[in-house]
Design goal:
heterodimer; A: 166 residues; alpha/beta; 25% strand; B: 405 residues; mainly alpha; 3-stranded antiparallel β-sheet; 8 strands
Chain lengths: 166, 405
């Protein structure tokens, strides 16, 4: 997709969801933070700037998305930026879900940890660190969680073989 | 493995500046850890000062394996994640892929899915009740629970040919029409179940030892539960009225009448009472599903995704071609990303599926309830005795298969 059509889609989605409390909060408090937006399959996803993920989480938490469901990562190798860290949020009161994601390029594989906003992120961020090698700055205990401590690879990366050595 | 003494490598617990406390290693081969969970406890006398769960002993790389399989080949892998509620995993994965494919699932398939999901919940809760009571010294309950569980497993065996790893749900519907005596068997089972639940309650609910071991133990406030990502019965036992079956219905749950039990006691006892009530509600939902089970097809109508009937395959050229293509090449799924969540026996189970437009999933991530709930174990145990740790682990109904994946 070209940049202009992406931008058009983003504007269209943000206009369509202007009354959504998370979108409104992000647009008002942190203008320019949303880099991309889409709502395929009835799921609103917003890509936000990597540096402002903690601020974005605080804003949507204040806007009513009280529950952090899941944090995970997708490796888009060999495309750049390579990693997409995905946050799934839930609002108990509004019965709505929201997906935030940030893009992380190779060279500086680091995202601010959101453990200070939701302590639930602790294990999830450790899992991403373990399986993808993305670091979370400010995480209280960033160690491997599933693989053994002395393991040297990040098995969920796309350049790690599914079986054997190739 | 290098020569490091694993027993002592728990940097977030070991603190040698104080000599008052000692490190106690609980698990991974401890009967009350329900599998291979290792807890590193820092204790002062018999009082727990800190708890650090150490997981990963059962890690099999299922998420990685999924990326190398066709979409339909992932279904049997999902059984093996939470081996006590295989149908919930099947259902959640199928719903996620169906959302990407925008498939319309026929009503009969949806109702059978609900019926089997509730039987799965009963199955899982029975194992939980038996083992939880056994951990706390009430050995008899285990035998009673496994008597009924055996009947559920026989029903699963009759419909899918497998007792535990059923793989009965398929993308687009169900694998097979259930056998002729299926409804009678399930009806007979659901009829005896309420009095059997009374039997378990007779053994435990008024039991002084069980009450002393569980009341006021493993306290978790609603704020902590939400902050730590706790879902399912432990969340509802902390007073948060949230059940995905009612609040964000899937697979036709909006057509069923049931109550969502909630408790404000926040302790192990509340989680016990709540799960027993949930079992009664499951019987209610399953009975409704059985009574109102509609006739009709059990698979969606999309020959490019769903395998043809055996009969059609033997008589029609197109069906044979579709069968060959699906089995050898899989079916392409439109590019996109979806997150589908269901209320499993243990809480919110979610599948995040990313497609790049090919026949193999680009990424499958499972959000499993006890992975997050395990983070609350420290809140529940600190300042309590070691024996209470056993009660707390039991009360979050831990399944290591889904934590480690």
């Amino acid at each position: 997709m070209t940049d202009t059509s992406k931008n058009n889609e983003k504007e269209a989605v943000l206009t369509a969801h202007a009354e959504n409390r998370a979108v409104a909060a992000l647009m008002q408090q942190l203008p320019g933070i949303v880099q991309n937006a889409n709502d395929a399959h009835g799921e609103l996803s917003l890509t936000v700037a990597r540096e402002s993920i903690v601020a974005a989480c605080r804003a949507v938490q204040a806007a009513g998305y009280n529950f952090l469901v899941d944090v995970t990562c997708v490796d888009w190798y060999p495309n750049q930026p390579r990693f997409q860290v995905v946050y799934h949020l839930l609002s108990h009161a509004m019965k709505q879900r929201l997906r935030l994601s940030v893009l992380v390029a190779e060279g500086d594989l680091s995202v601010e940890s959101i453990v200070s906003v939701w302590p639930a992120a602790n294990f999830y961020e450790r899992e991403i660190f373990d399986l993808f090698g993305v670091r979370f700055a400010g995480h209280p205990n960033l160690r491997r969680i599933l693989m053994p401590e002395e393991f040297q690879y990040n098995p969920l990366r796309k350049d790690f073989p599914v079986e054997g050595y190739r | 493995m290098s020569g490091t003494p694993i027993l002592l490598t728990a940097p977030d617990v070991v603190d040698s500046s104080e000599d008052r406390t000692m490190i106690l290693n609980m698990g991974p081969q401890h009967p009350s850890t329900h599998g291979v969970l290792r807890l590193v406890l820092e204790i002062d006398g018999e009082v727990v000062v800190r708890v650090a769960p150490d997981i990963g002993y059962l890690h099999t790389g299922i998420e990685k394996t999924c990326e190398a399989k066709f979409y339909q080949q992932v279904v049997p892998l999902t059984d093996r994640i939470d081996y006590l509620s295989p149908m919930h995993n099947n259902l959640c994965y199928c719903l996620a892929v169906e959302k990407l494919l925008e498939l319309e699932i026929p009503e009969r398939a949806q109702w059978l899915r609900v019926l089997l999901s509730e039987l799965t919940r009963l199955n899982s809760h029975l194992v939980w009740l038996g083992t939880h009571a056994m951990d706390l010294g009430a050995l008899t309950v285990f035998l009673y629970c496994f008597r009924e569980r055996e009947e559920i497993l026989r029903i699963f065996d009759s419909i899918s040919g497998q007792r535990m790893m059923t793989s009965y749900f398929r993308i687009g519907g169900l694998a097979l029409e259930p056998p002729l005596d299926f409804c009678d068997r399930v009806r007979a089972f659901l009829k005896i179940m309420p009095e059997r639940i009374d039997e378990y309650e007779n053994l435990l609910t008024g039991n002084r030892i069980f009450m002393n071991r569980t009341k006021g133990v493993g306290l978790l406030s609603a704020e902590d539960a939400i902050a730590l990502g706790v879902t399912g019965p432990p969340l509802r036992a902390s007073g948060v009225d949230w059940d995905l079956r009612r609040d964000m219905p899937y697979s036709g749950y909006e057509k069923f009448q049931f109550n969502v039990p909630v408790s404000n006691d926040c302790d192990v006892w509340a989680r016990y009472v709540l799960r027993v009530q949930e079992m009664r509600e499951s019987v209610k939902i399953a009975t409704q599903a059985l009574d109102g089970l509609p006739e009709g097809p059990i698979k969606a109508n999309n020959p490019k995704v769903i395998l043809p009937d055996r009969e059609a395959m033997k008589t029609q050229m197109e069906a044979l071609i579709h069968h060959f293509k699906i089995v050898t090449e899989g079916f392409p799924v439109p590019a996109g990303q979806v997150y589908q969540a269901i209320e499993s026996s243990r809480g919110e189970m979610g599948y995040y599926v990313v497609s790049d437009g090919t026949a193999k999933p680009y990424r499958v991530h499972m959000r499993n309830p006890t992975f997050a709930t395990l983070q609350a174990i420290e809140k529940m145990c600190v300042g309590r005795l070691i024996a209470d740790v056993v009660a707390a682990i039991g009360s979050i109904d831990i399944v290591l298969g889904e934590i480690d994946r």
